[in-house]
Amino acid sequence: MPRRKAADRTGPVKTRSRSGCRECRASRVRCDTKKPVCTRCWEKGLPCSTNLVLKWESEFVSRGMAFGRAGVWSKTRDANSAALQSPSDDMRNWVSVPTIRPWGFINSGVATFDHPEQVDIVLNELHALVPVAGHNASNWSAGAFAAVLNPSLGPSLSLFPELSHLGNGELFDYYLQQVCPRTTASSTVSSPFASIILPFSSSASPTLFKAIQALGACHRSRADPSYGALGLRLKSETLRDLRRRLSNEGSLNCAGDPEVLVIMMMLCLYEIVDKCDQHWTIHLKGAKDLIRLRRQQTAALPESSNAPDPATAFAEHFFAFQDVMGRTACAKEVLFGSDYWKADDKNIDLWMGCSPELVNILSTITDMSRARRQLDSNEARSTFSMRAASLENQLEHLVQEIGDGDDEILASAAEAKRLAAVLYLHCGLHGACPTTPLVVDYVRQILRLVSDLLDREALPSMTWPVFVAAVELDPSRDELWSDPLAEPVSGRATVLRALAAMSESTIANIARTRAVITQVWQARDQDLVKGAMQGEFNDWEKYVVPVSDAMSLA
């Protein structure tokens, strides 16, 4: 049948409603658009709903688009529609291209979103370009970095020719020339790893020499991967000898032998330099058990016989300091107490880079932060607040003394650690976050000291203060300050420059430290976009603790 013409039709013309409900449009039937329920939905008992989309003309104009059908069906284009279609040069705002620095990093990846609690050190190394401070980045290469980190030693006379039958004597020389200088906070004094361990090793067994050689090979493998397999073999032989000795002699006898503790210290350092994962904490826990047994044995002796020999005292000092500094990040239970140094000693320890009093305060802050969420009464919370205020006052008035000589760089490093301790106290005990004005001020002070030390090409023992300042950087306020006639100083760029310098000047595992810092930055950036709210955990517990297990920040 032919279609009727419009003139032949009778009755009202049924037009399609543009404001019909969702149910009628889905069924392809005409809706009478009655409110609040149309007739069809009322008769069939259906929910009657409409999709309402608001469109604002100002938004379309700002994007240079036509609003609705305006100008679409016009046969002539007026000036207004032409302006909407093609903005003039006067309306364009050209964004200047920022200066691209070589220490930037890619702040995203699939693993970042799938496993935010896992730290991928290898992936972070691929995404991080961090030239050593003081060198031209454009001319920097992997080979140049290897030359600075690991200069060729060449053939040399071994310090212990009687052990030449063990082989790899150059690794012991490498330990003395390259590893030991990187283990002290002051360049004016000898490291205890040389001044104490070297004389002690002159009468030690070959097992200790293997442990020292393994550490040297592991550190040298950073620039020359061919030493990695050698270091692993030497470590395996050392572990085999140590297990046999513990099995044959027993823990009680081994606890009184300082060589066992020194060997475990070298193995602990090996694991820190290698991957800085859970393996180094195994040696930490084993050393704690041996030290406890030794102290139980010496408790019954006369007081004059209780003083340990220098090697034992330094090994105990080493393990206790590693425990305190590592716990600040992961908030784990204490292994070593505060009885390994004087709690009121204000003299800066040349190996720790700060005073024992400051280390004791840090241990107390970590213990209090662990107990903070278990406070179940007003009296307990009041006592907690008073103790926190007392620690804050102690830190504010702490004066760390250098002792003999005047080492300005060491004094700056100790002051940076004191400032970081105040920052850590407020974040761990008072729930401060990067947007807190006090936190912003302390982060700026710490990174100002770090920047000054970078300019002087000296950055000793600064892993912990750089880490604390980095994880509490405000992602929305990265600019720290503006120097006259210079570009604004970026907080994240300063941190990455410092980490690059420390990768050359210390034996700390900077790759792991940088990976954790980057992970915290990524989490903060994501929450800044999502507008995440603070839960039951404070800022430090939410962002730092989950990704900082088994970190070495000493």
Automatic annotation (TrEMBL):
Keywords: DNA-binding, Nucleus, Transcription, Transcription regulation. It is found in: Nucleus. InterPro entries: Fun_TF, Zn2-C6_fun-type_DNA-bd_sf, Zn2Cys6_DnaBD. It comes from the Eukaryota. One of its GO terms (molecular function) is DNA-binding transcription factor activity, RNA polymerase II-specific. One of its GO terms (biological process) is positive regulation of transcription by RNA polymerase II. Gene3D superfamilies: Zn(2)-C6 fungal-type DNA-binding domain (4.10.240.10). CDD domains: GAL4. It holds the Pfam family Fungal_trans_2. GO terms for cellular component: nucleus. Residues 20-50 form the Zn(2)-C6 fungal-type domain. PANTHER family: LYSINE BIOSYNTHESIS REGULATORY PROTEIN LYS14 (PTHR37534:SF49), TRANSCRIPTIONAL ACTIVATOR PROTEIN UGA3 (PTHR37534). This is Zn(2)-C6 fungal-type domain-containing protein. It comes from Penicillium cinerascens.
